[in-house]
Structures are given as structure tokens and as C-alpha cells.
Amino acid sequence: MTIQTGYAIASIAALKALTSSQRADSYARIVKSVAWYIFDASSAATADDDLVLLPNDNPSTGRWIKIGGSGGGGSDNINFTAGSIICTSSCSSGAGKAFHFDSPQSGFIEVAVDSAIAPYIYVGNRSIQVSLWTQEPNTDMTGRQFIAELPNTGGSVFIATDDYRPWLTVQAKTGNTNPQDGVCSTFSGNTVTLIAF
To answer: For a 10 Å CB count at each end of the chain, is N or C smaller?
Structure first.
């Protein structure tokens, strides 16, 4: 599934005012000077007018979720104990290139960069990509749904998994013109630690 985008929108109030015919699952909009939001049709998360926006028509499910950004804590964090590390064949023990969630979750993940891999990640604001997948991650990129980009130092990202998108990957660039590459990572608490290409 590919995220589709619309024109930039002026404010959070204007985004919340979009009607059901103006939003679809995985539809992304940028709110000027605020952030990107993606519409998750299955989300029933509690709205806070920042990280989670409830449309004005008050659907029982369907929320605008802020993607990228920073912050998060407490119960708003993802828990990597509810699933398993996969794509482990080229990684050291306890690491893999993807994670499969056993049940839907929404919240923040922290992407940390181990000092051993840091010198190999291209320095830039779009060096790391976080994606959810509708099928097991693969080199053809079939089923990949881009969520957010982070700088080479990592950061915090809000994700919302569901039964349709239970796989998570974090990829990184080794050069300015190089494509994103899978990274061996550990998954603990709500933190993905990038350790090796």
C-alpha cells in the first residue's frame, strides 16, 4: 500500500474538519508549521489534539496520527515484548532486520544508533526510514508502507500497527545517493537500536 498525500493544510482545526469523503486509510496531510499526519482508519486512540486528532464528525474508529516528531513516554510507547524479531539470518544473535507484532499497537518507538554503526550511516536529516509492512519485509519492497524519516542520529516516531500491517523495519543510508538498506537491530522495551549493516 502506498501512502497518498494531499495539499498542505493550514491548521489542525482544518485537518479535523475534513469529512469522511476527504480522508482514507493511510492518507497523509501536512499541517503547515506543525507536522505530517496520517489517517489510520482503524485507530480508536484517545485524541489529544497533538499526537492524535479526532475528526470533527466523531467516528468510532479513524484518527489522524502525527508521524515523525519527538516526545512520548509512559503508556504511549510501543512494547517490543509482544512479538518477535525476524529476518535474522545475516545478523548477530538477538538481532534482526524486522519485527513482527503479535497484536496491534500504537505509540512511540525510539530509534537509537549504536556507536559501531554510526560512522557508516550517511549524515543527514533523512538518513533513517521507518516502515510498516502488509507482508513479511522483502527486497522487492512489496507491501512496504513508509511511516517517517529521521536524521542519522535517530529519534522518536509514532507508529500504529494493526492486523494488516504487523511488520516493522528501520532502514538507513550509507551514502547520499545510496538507497535505504536493511539494518540489523535489537528491539527492547520501545527502542530499536541499529547495530550493523
So the answer is: N
Q: Where are the alpha helices (DSSP H) in the chain?
A: 12-16
Given a cut of 70, whether residue 136 has pLDDT beyond it is yes
Report the Cα 125 to chain-centroid distance in Å: 16
pTM of the model as a whole: 0.65
What is the C-alpha to C-alpha distance for residues 161 and 100, in angstroms, rounded to an integer? Answer: 10
* Dihedral (CA of 15, 20, 22, 23) sign: positive
pLDDT digits (tens, 9 = 90+) for 138-147: 999 999 988 8
35-40/27-31 β-pairing: antiparallel
Question: How far apart, in whole angstroms, are the C-alpha atoms of residue 120 and residue 196?
Answer: 9
Nearest to 130 by CA among 178, 98, 163, 84: 98
Residue with the three cell numbers 549493516: 197
